[in-house]
């Protein structure tokens, strides 16, 4: 039984989830920024510059291949032994892999072993972040008051833009304070090595948080599933794939703008590197209040309407967005980015609560994680796909068409899902039909 003021415990757990996810996503995103800016030179120096950038972004995508595996692995134990231990282990795995990347010699020192080890460590990062989201989201949602699950569930979601702000901001500071040669030689390693301190802080915070009361209550009244990942795939396949599809465009466009555009805008559109890093830092910061406000709004109007509006507007504005990006004007670049950020936040704000409410407690970690991480596979390859599209067509509009198509897929999947706003987390139906419990 949880003691203390009713609202204090959810806030503490949500804050702990936010700190941990911020650190994990900081580690994950500094790789993306480094892949866009320096990895082609450090690990693929013998490639043509354009192909070297695509190869570097391809190693970035390997982390997304690992994310569903990490999601399944951590979810198995998260549904069997608890949410809290998985949050600790995922943070440790991510931290170790990130520091090792910061210490990894380049191609000039150890040859082909450098990119091979880089891919392996990126894969380990993917395993860690794959297990992170489900545990953090469920700890926040399962500890929240029933009428505020959308709001408290949005707190760990804020870890994504906050991690990106810290990651992009760290590279911006380096870009402004060290020379190009120093940046290539050792400057890019500093954010990776600095994550060791952040991991220590995150571990201390997470170890002070109690286990989810919803999980504890459910574990007392039923035996844990032997293979929760297989069971949820067997009993709830429809909602897993619909939820994954509903998140596809949000996930993919995030990496298009935060990774691929960093490279393309600085090499092809004439933007200064510090200007783009500064713009992305500002745009990521703007995500934070939008995610919290839209998570709170979902507690009033529902989760599904926000998903539908966000994806419909994204599909409509994809072409105008890339016209603004291609203008070469940083003000128009930011304006277009704010519209896209709002569309993504309409999904990302209520997502923790919406995905958690789809599944019964004993399969919730597995179901929510699989849905989230399946979408991450296509999202993770989006930067490389964008690079290939522009290489083949020579037009930024091919990327706009790609984004619009993904938004339409997510819109269709969101339309097929059912509202869950009034659902009781303790008594979610086990029939896999997604029927909502309404008040």
From TrEMBL:
Predominant subcellular localization, coarse grouping: membrane
Keywords: Cell membrane, Membrane, Transmembrane, Transmembrane helix, Transport
SUPFAM superfamilies per record: MFS general substrate transporter (SSF103473)
Domain Major facilitator superfamily (MFS) profile: 13-422
Keyword presence, Plastid: no
PANTHER family (alphabetical): SHIKIMATE TRANSPORTER
Name of the featured protein: MFS transporter
Lineage: Bacteria, Bacillati, Actinomycetota, Actinomycetes, Pseudonocardiales
């Amino acid at each position: 039984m949880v003691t203390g003021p009713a609202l204090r415990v959810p806030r503490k757990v949500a804050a702990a989830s936010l700190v941990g996810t911020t650190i994990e996503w900081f580690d994950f995103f500094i790789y993306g920024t480094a892949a866009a800016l320096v990895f082609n030179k450090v690990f693929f120096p013998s490639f043509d510059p354009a192909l070297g950038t695509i190869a570097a972004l391809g190693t970035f995508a390997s982390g997304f291949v690992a994310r569903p595996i990490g999601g399944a692995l951590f979810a198995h134990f998260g549904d069997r032994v608890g949410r809290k231990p998985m949050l600790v282990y995922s943070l440790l795995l991510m931290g170790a892999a990130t520091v090792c990347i910061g210490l990894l010699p380049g191609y000039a020192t150890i040859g082909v072993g450098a990119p091979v080890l880089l891919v392996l460590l990126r894969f380990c990062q993917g395993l860690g972040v794959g297990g992170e989201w489900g545990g953090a989201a469920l700890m926040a949602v399962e500890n929240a008051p029933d009428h505020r699950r959308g709001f408290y569930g949005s707190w760990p979601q804020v870890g994504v833009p906050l991690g990106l702000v810290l990651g992009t901001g760290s590279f911006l500071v380096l870009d402004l304070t060290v020379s190009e040669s120093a940046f290539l030689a050792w400057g890019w390693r500093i954010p990776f090595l600095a994550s060791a301190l952040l991991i220590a802080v995150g571990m201390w915070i997470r170890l002070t948080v109690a286990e989810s009361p919803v999980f504890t209550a459910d574990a007392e009244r039923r035996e844990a599933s032997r293979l929760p990942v297989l069971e949820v795939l067997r009993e709830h396949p429809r909602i897993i794939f619909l939820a994954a599809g509903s998140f596809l465009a949000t996930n993919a466009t995030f990496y298009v703008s935060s990774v691929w555009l960093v490279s393309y805008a600085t090499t092809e559109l004439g933007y200064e590197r510090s200007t783009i890093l500064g713009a992305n830092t500002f745009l990521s910061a703007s995500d934070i209040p939008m995610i919290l406000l839209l998570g709170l709004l979902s507690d009033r109007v529902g989760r599904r309407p926000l998903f539908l509006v966000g994806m419909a507007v994204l599909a409509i504005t994809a072409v105008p967005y890339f016209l603004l990006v291609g203008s070469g004007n940083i003000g128009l670049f930011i304006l277009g980015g704010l519209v896209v950020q709002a569309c993504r936040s309409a999904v990302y704000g209520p997502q923790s609560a919406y995905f958690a409410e789809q599944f019964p407690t004993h399969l919730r970690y597995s179901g929510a994680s699989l849905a989230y991480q399946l979408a991450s596979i296509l999202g993770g390859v989006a930067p490389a796909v964008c690079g290939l599209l522009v290489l083949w067509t020579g037009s930024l509009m091919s990327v706009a068409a790609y984004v619009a198509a993904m938004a339409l897929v997510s819109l269709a999947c969101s339309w097929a899902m059912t509202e869950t706003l009034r659902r009781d987390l303790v008594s979610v139906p086990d029939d896999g039909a997604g029927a909502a419990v309404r008040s």
